[in-house]
Each structure stands twice: as C-alpha cells, then as structure tokens.
Amino acid sequence: MRQIATAVSRWGLIAAALAMSPLSVGAAPNPAVPAAAAAGAASAAQDKAIAESLAEMLRDARTVISNNQDLINNPALGDKHLGGDRVLQAAVALYRKNTGVDPDAIDPNSREGRLLRAMMKAIVMVMADNQTTINEQGTGFKGFIPAVFGRLVAETFNGLAGNEAVIKVTAPPELVRNIKARPDAWERDVIKTKLLAPDWPKGQPFSADVTIDGRSAYRIAVPEYYRQSCLACHGSPKGEMDITGYPKEGQKVGDLGGVISITLFR
Ligand code: HEC
To answer: From its phi and psi, is residue 245 left (phi > 0), alpha (psi between -120 and 50) or beta?
Structure first.
C-alpha cells in the first residue's frame, strides 16, 4: 500500500515537471528565486522526469519478458508469436497502467518523446534479433531472460540515442555478473554512500549534475530490489550454480539487487 502511494506521488511530480516548460517558469516568476536558478531547477526536474520515464519503459518491457518466461522456455513449441510489436504493446500497456500516461501521446518532437521512442524502437529491435533463439524447438531454457533482454535493449537504445543519453543496468560491484554491467566510479560511489546507506529511503533514486569529458550532464541512479522470483538465481545457497550457469549470490528479498543508471547530456 505504501509502495503504491509512493509510486503515485512520484508520478504526480513527474507529470507536473513535464508540464512545466521553461516558458511557463518565465511567465510566472517567483521573485524570491533568481531566474537562472529557477530555469536550472526546471531543467533538472525535466531531466528527472525523462530519465524516470525511460527507466519505467525498460522495466515494463522486462516485466513482459518475465511474464512470458514459461512460453519462451517451452521446448515443445516452435513459433512463440512473441515478436517485437507484441512485446512493445504489452510494455506500453504496463507503462500506461503504472503512470497514467500514454507514451504514444507524448510529442515525438520533444526530448522525452524522442528518447522514449528510441527506447520503444530498441525493444522491437531486440525482439526481432532474437526470434531464432526464442523460437527454437526442442530447447527448453534458452538464456533469454529479463536481465539479458534488458541489457540488450539498453545497448540498442544507447546506439539509437547517439550522444544524447546513456542507459545501463548495473549493480553493487560484488553482485555484478556480466562484466559490461560493472559500475563506473560515480555509480560505485552512489551505490555505496547513498543507495546502500542504512537510512536511504527505499526506492528513492539519487541524481546529480555532473561534468563528463567537459560536457554537462544529468545523472540518476534508480535502485531495484530483489523479489522472491529473483532468488531462484540470485538467492541461496550462495555459490550454488543457477540455471544460467552463474553462482548464486545468497541475496534476500529486499536487498539492493541493481541500479538503472541513466545519463542525459545537456
Ligand atoms: C533465471 C535466472 C535469473 C533470474 C530469475 C534473475 N536474474 Fe538477474 N541476472 C541473471 C543473469 C544470467 C544475469 C547476467 C545477464 C547478462 O548477461 O547481462 C543477471 C543480471 C542481473 C543484473 C545486471 C547486473 C549484472 O549482474 O550483470 C541485475 C541488476 C539483476 N540481474 C537483477 C535481478 C533482479 C532484480 C531479478 C528479479 C526481478 C533477477 N535479476 C532475476 C539471472 C537471473
């Protein structure tokens, strides 16, 4: 119940931030706030809204793969009829349900619309690329799981977004399985000093304005926690091989399992 309330209020803020254009800030100046500071706050709020929108779409698409895992793993079936359009439609439906916003209604010429559509295109492309694997008859477990799918979507998105945005799913260093997911210095520090701090509010992202190679950027780290369903692979007994061939990490429900890390260049 508490989680639902948090989600609703978070998305309320995001919707408000998206509605707040620099123009409307200028039109209703707060005399107590210098114009530059107000514009900066507005752009940080918009960056946050865009980043959380991208994270939401990635999470929703991963959930669709998770919901179809038994179908994907079914050795008796050939064609699973689980193509890019079907996965995208289901992800968009989840996005709508979770946020109250229709992604297709977001102006494609806006920065959010452009980046969100790149994410949606990446979802379709990854599903198209993996049809042979998914439809292989006679093989049960094919290694096509939400984490792998999510990584491929992030990599594809990064190619489409050019030098405008980067998304990556990372994790606390001792939990990282795929070398490509290793946290960089900023992510390591945020995970250690913020997201893993005993008093850090569960689920709260951490964000900051940073400079990367001389470019000004907004970075945000959105925490993700293990649920019961994750523990078949990431749970106990620690060290025992999971179905994917990695040793289990001995984690528990509620432990910080990963971080969706997003960089938006300005
Ligand atoms: C079927 C086994 C399995 C299940 C279930 C599973 N994972 Fe994983 N997870 C993996 C594998 C394998 C990888 C490495 C994927 C890759 O190659 O990028 C991984 C990678 C990750 C990563 C990326 C960082 C890294 O270690 O490479 C995160 C974060 C993660 N898992 C969190 C979760 C969470 C949270 C859940 C539950 C919602 C979950 N996993 C469920 C097997 C699993």
So the answer is: left
Residue 84 lies in a domain: no
**Domain-embedded: residue 51:** no
Is residue 7 very low, low, confident or very high in pLDDT (cuts 50, 70, 90)? very low
- Residue ranges making up the domain that contains 172: 165-266
- How remote is the CA of residue 257 from the centroid of ligand 1, in Å? 8
User: Quick count: other Cβ atoms within 10 Å of Cβ 126?
Assistant: 24
Q: Take atom 37 of ligand 1 and give the residue whose Cα is closest.
A: 230
Write the pLDDT tens digit of every residue in 161-185: 988 999 999 999 999 999 999 999 9
Helix axes 35-67 and 2-19, enclosed angle (nearest 10): 130
What would the mean pLDDT of 249-256 be, rounded to a whole number? 98
Number of domains within the chain: 1
Residue 257 lies in a domain: yes
Q: What is the CATH number of the domain that holds 223?
A: 3.30.450
pLDDT for 216 equals: 95
Task: Kindly report the protein residue whose alpha carbon is nearest to atom 38 of ligand 1.
Answer: 230
